[in-house]
Amino acid sequence: MTGRVRQLDEVVIVGYGRQRKGDVSGAVTTVRTDDMRQVADASFNRQLEGLAAGLQVSTTSGEPGGGVSLRIRGGSSIEGGNEPLYVIDGFPVYSTVVSASAVSGAPLNPLSMLASGDIASITVLKDAAATAIYGSRAANGVIIVTTKSGQSGKPKIAYQASVGVQTLAKRIDLLDARQFASLRNEALYDANPALGAHQYLSVDEIAALGGGTDWQREAFRSALTTDHHLSVSGGTRQTRYHVSGNYYLQEGILRHTDFSRLATRVNLQSQLNSRLATGINLSMAQTGGRLAPEGIITSLLLMPPTATVYDKVRGGYTLRNPFENIFANPIASLLEQTNTSRSFKLLGTAFAEYTFLPQLKLKVMLGVDYQSGHERRYIPSTIYEGKAAGGIASVGTSEHRSWLNENTLTYTATVARKHRLEALLGLTQQETKVEWVRTGASNFVSDKLSYNNLESGAVVTTPYSYATRNALISTFARLNYQFDHRYFLTASLRADGSSRFGAKNKWGWFPSVGASWDVSRESFFGPISHIVSQFKLRTSYGLTGNQEIGNEQSLATLSAVAYQFGGIHVKGFAPDRVGNSRLGWESTSQFDLGLDIGLWNNRFSLSLDYYHKRTRDLLLNVEIPWTSGFQTSLQNYGTVVNRGFELALQSHNEWGKMRWDADFNFSLNRNKVVQLGGNAPRYISGLYYILQVGQPLGTFYGAATVGILQPGEEQGRGALTGNANPKAGDRLYRDVNGDGKFTVSADRTIIGSAQPDFICSLSNRLAYGSFDVSFMLTASVGNDVLNLNRQALEVFSGQQNAAASAAERWTTSHPSLTMPRAKLDPAPVFSDRSVEDGSYLRVRTVTLGYTLPAGFARKLHIGGLRWYVSATNLLTFTGYSGYDPAVTTAANAVDQGTDQGVYPSSRTCSIGFSVQF
After folding, report:
1. In the record, which residues are listed under signal peptide (predicted)?
2. Structure pTM?
3. What is the mean pLDDT of residues 102-131?
4. How many whole angstroms separate alpha carbon 139 and alpha carbon 94?
5. In 10 A of CB 854, how many CB atoms?
6. Is the Cβ–Cβ distance between 770 and 742 less than 8 Å?
7. Could you give the CA distance from residue 901 to residue 882 in angstroms, rounded to a whole number?
8. What pairs with residue 91 in β-bridges?
């Protein structure tokens, strides 16, 4: 039973403490950090994909240091946040971006400040028994990150280095110059047949074009990435230390984009005497990069291939799309704009722990989280975006300050060897302040000074400034009891008081209870214990909350306005929002039922969980009487339910010199809106989404296509085109309301959902002697993606480039049943043509390594040496036509699964080594 005992005695980090793995009653997953570091990426939370059941990871930007969206057991909030709470060395933080909005494009990931080489463990808390101790911040799950600490002994030096090459994982097929010219001729002819069939270019001119400009080839590149990590650790019986430094540089696959990180960390623990222990965890990081301007992906996809990067007649860059002035030259935008964001972050905690009795300990912790940001942008007058304004500059600074005080009293006792009790009592308080300022100017005498001399701009942009703060004070208690390692009970209660909510609803209470029974410890289990080494039943129920709605949402506010008074332009204030003194938390109740099975000394283990989450009091903007002076008010209405299954399988095998470990994770989640504000059955959100009772969040709402109008059908089916003068080749749409015609306002219907049927992953690690190979596969099945790039690329207007599928468009000689005709002035209708199956199977990582045998290492006077080669995002098998199916432009639950000009993910091939002294 040695293997079983070793696994069950592993320590798991939980909220405000740690437990033996065998004693845990909640749904908790410990991530293998070695697997996480196989993924070449700047952000540790993006590296978590596929490593925990119930955890879904989507890319919001593939840009270096770019954003990522995580969901633990589905999204629950409509107006509030859906991201999990991160607790780094005891300090609660969110992945929320603090920005002055002075730059353009997707923001950097604020968690990219933490190097994965500094992480010792990551624990994902999923059910209420594990998360309720964090109260009003735990409804979306909790991810606990613990960084490395030193061990007693001689100093140990470790150095890791890697270099990699990134390439665009997939290109989007577009028309070349000849094909585009033919398309434009058709569109012009359709608009005005009297001018002939070759109004743009003749047959000979088209033949002489060649392929034209490949804007994807001009914009994308092979890019380098390098990562260096150095650490020194050691200590005595009284004092232990771990000091590290990291330098990370990643060029972007889009030209003139990059990300860099320079970070250092000091972790120190000291046993001052037999009763008093102290410690400090301190990290500092300088991060930043050059960002891709907003809309650059859309621009380079739609730029006509007949346009050139440089103007051969006037010199310099071609300014814009010659046919449609909303699109600028994407190469000029990339290379000539200055668009940078840099930040400094300090995150530190210090603690003192005093032992009154062997069973009674008091721990006091103080923490600080400080971040300053600097954003700079300049658009020169030599490119299209800045030409009319004479150059545009904007600068901004932001500051985020948060302090934390945490006080915990822990009592442990063992009675008669079989009864073990652990009680925790705590008081914590945290305050966060955010400030930012932004200003700018335009119409400069010269571009040479860029944003460094705003006063030289003739037109000053209206300055903006903002300051806010929020505070949280909490008390909590937890009781863990176990009897004879067979029966386990855990109960917790937390009370949170938050400044974010109404005066009449400041406090919330969040209880939980969990129990488990290790049946395999019972005497009657003895006859099969050599086969079934663990059989443990778990269950839990509890309440958690979500306070991530922003600050001052319960208060009536004023906003600055400008108006004319007596012929003079003056400034003043006007009511901006009606107050709600009863505004409170979004409350989530969660039931969990779990089973843990181990076979053959836990060489094979299985964890199965069923959960049911109901989120009530959703924050929604509800319509209110017009006599109030406002149209809506933020109120606690609405209910969303998530329920699902999670399966985690592990296998550990050894045969002589061969070792084989395998992990399989499977997650199935069903999301459903149960109630909306004011008992409304549905709420249409923007142009593409709908919230509807009985449907999941992330539901797409548009027209359903039913084919292409053919010659002779104009008088009959023509009404289904939605056009006043239908012509053969127009797209047909379903008449949903049965009035015999199609209109956008009356005939939209549900056309897809971003929710997957299931997600899963498979990891394998095989080692023989000094060689090792590993790989991980990830998959998502049944999710739809709203591909707004495709919607734009299937507008066959001849004004912009189109997808290669335009070659199959309807013509009199090719009466297509799927693709419409070319048309100079189409009125695009959002339809199911833009909603695609986003299912995929991805070879996430492949790694081949060699570890120098211990005998050779000793001869070289080193502790160890390993070389490896690896690939990230090596292959993706999908029917999705966009760059990446695992993508979402927006991080909220309503707009999830949307691909609109997202910076593509890259394929990375790396080589590296690690050495210890």
Report:
1. none
2. 0.94
3. 91
4. 13
5. 11
6. no
7. 10
8. 88
* Widest Cα–Cα separation across the chain: 101
Distances (CA, A) of 532 to 4, 515, 526, 647: 10, 21, 9, 18
What is the helix (H) or strand (E) element at residue 302, kind and residue range?
helix 296-302
In the numeric block, the tokens 């808390």 are attached to: 125
- Cβ contact 634:583 at 8 Å: yes
Question: Strands 85-88 and 142-147, how do they pair?
Answer: parallel
DSSP character at residue 803 = B
Q: Is 790 helix (H, G, I), strand (E, B) or coil?
A: helix
Query: With 60 as the cut, is the pLDDT of residue 1 above it?
Result: no
The rounded mean pLDDT for the chain is 93
Ordered by start, the domain boundaries in the chain are 2-169+220-697+755-785+838-916
The pLDDT, as a whole number, for residue 678 is: 66
If residue 298 lies in a helix (H) or strand (E), which one and from where to where? helix 296-302
Number of C-alpha atoms within 13 angstroms, CB side, residue 339? 24
Phi-psi region at 252: left, alpha or beta (left = phi > 0; alpha = psi -120 to 50): beta
Residues in Cβ contact with 256 at an 8 Å cutoff, skipping those fewer than 6 apart: 290, 334, 335
Kindly tell me the burial class for residue 498, based on how many C-beta atoms sit within 10 Å of its own C-beta (0-12, 13-18, 19 or more): buried
The tokens describing 780, both together, are 């998502």
Lowest mean pLDDT among 124-138, 477-491, 520-534, 617-631: 617-631
**What number is the average pLDDT over the span 175-188?**
96
Quote the CA–CA distance of 887 and 903 in Å, as a whole number: 10
Task: Quickly tell me which residue has 């623990």 as its tokens.
Answer: 269
| Cα-based distances in Å from 835 to 593, 722, 748 | 36, 20, 14
Query: pLDDT value at position 683?
Result: 77
CA distance 54 to 75: 11
pLDDT tens digits, residue range 407-441? 999 999 999 889 999 999 999 999 999 999 999 99
The DSSP H or E segment spanning 545 is: strand 532-546
pLDDT at 611: 98
For residue 179, pLDDT beyond 70 = yes
Does residue 498 contact residue 522 with C-beta atoms inside 8 Å?
Answer: no
pLDDT at residue 316 above 70?
A: yes
**Taking a C-beta distance cutoff of 8 angstroms, is the pair 539, 612 a contact?**
no
Query: Which DSSP state fits 41?
Result: -
Beta carbons of 266 and 282 less than 8 angstroms apart: yes
CB atoms within 10 A of CB 372: 16
Helix ranges (H only) for 40-192 are 128-131, 177-191
- What is the per-residue pLDDT across 809-830, written as a single tens digit (0 to 9) for each? 999 999 999 999 999 988 889 9
More confident residue, 631 or 59: 59
Tokens 């999710």 map to which residue? 783
**Stretch 34-54: mean pLDDT:** 92
Q: In 119-238, where do the E strands start and end?
A: 119-125, 142-147, 153-168, 223-235
Which of 327 and 61 is assigned the larger pLDDT?
Answer: 61
- Mean pLDDT throughout 638-662? 95
The single-letter code of the amino acid at 329 is N
**Could you write out the three-class secondary structure of 46-108?**
HHHCCCCCCEEEEECCCCCCECEEEEECCCCCCCCCCCCEEEECCEEECCCCCCCCCCCCCCE
**DSSP, res 905:** P
Concatenated DSSP letters of 240-289: EEEEEEEEEEEE-SBTT-EEEEEEEEEEEEEE-SSSEEEEEEEEEEEEEE
Distance CA 48, CA 69 (A): 11
CA angle 19, 55, 887 (to 5 degrees): 155
The secondary structure of 574-595 as a DSSP string is EEEE---TT---EEEEEEEEEE
CA dihedral sign, ordered 330, 336, 337, 342: positive
Cα angle vertex 297, ends 294, 302, to 5°? 120
Q: What is the mean pLDDT of residues 310-324?
A: 84
pLDDT at 679: 66
**Domain covering 2-169+220-697+755-785+838-916: architecture:** Beta Barrel (2.40)
Q: How far is CA 238 from CA 94, 271, 654, in A?
A: 34, 5, 38
